[in-house]
Amino acid sequence: FEDECGPFDNRFNVIDFKTELKKITFSESDFSLNSLETDSVTFDELALQMLAVTESYQAHSRIHPKLTFPFSSRAYACSPPNITSDETITDIQIFSDNNYSNEFSSTDDISQLFDVIVYYDRNGYQRFSLNEFLSSKPETPLEIILVLRTPPESSQSFQFTIKYFQDGLELNQFEFTTS
Q1: What pLDDT, on a 0 to 100 scale, did the predictor assign at position 18?
Q2: Are 43 and 150 in contact (CB under 8 A)?
Q3: Helices then strands (H, E): number in the chain?
């Protein structure tokens, strides 16, 4: 019984993002995201989720097409490979509609106050400070979750504008404002 499978797409490029405000809850070793049930959450419950809208494709092998291996008539790889991107994030800037603190006005980039949780097919979810993550010139993940580390100095409501930049195939910049 022969069951051929593959080839599989192993690369993706981002063409858009689906964004949503979520309520995040952390446990010792995990987290959960839930829909917002009210218009306000505490700073440590706020999550800005960016799900990549992607197109996938196959990266072509560099092996010469006439190369054969006489010791094996066929090779089957029925588990799809982890999907990766050749695109890299160049910057993420975050602005607030109100002064966030005495140190950060509404015109200042407050991205240093955020952590990021990213999802890669091969590694699962990982958490970093946003600045540390960006300094690594990261490949584009399938999901980005921005989480505040520092509370605002006032209890007023805030809207955030996120400006995302990447060295991409189709998308180089994406911007959204929370509501």
Answers
A1: 97
A2: yes
A3: 1, 10
Q: Quote the DSSP letter at residue 131.
A: H
Three-state SS at 134: helix
pLDDT in tens, 73-129: 445 556 778 889 999 999 999 999 999 999 999 999 999 999 999 999 989 999 999
Alpha-carbon radius of gyration of the chain: 20
Cα angle value 32/35/38 (rounded, 5°): 125
Cis check: omega of the bond before 81, within 30 degrees of 0: no
* Residue 128 Cα distances to 29, 74, 153, angstroms: 14, 43, 24
How open is the CA angle 40-43-47, to the nearest 5 degrees?
85
Compute the distance between CA of residue 158 and CA of residue 171 in angstroms, rounded to an integer.
28
Give the residues across from 175 on adjacent strands.
163
The yes-or-no verdict on residue 17 having pLDDT over 60 is yes
- Of 179, 141, 138, the C-alpha closest to 158 is 179
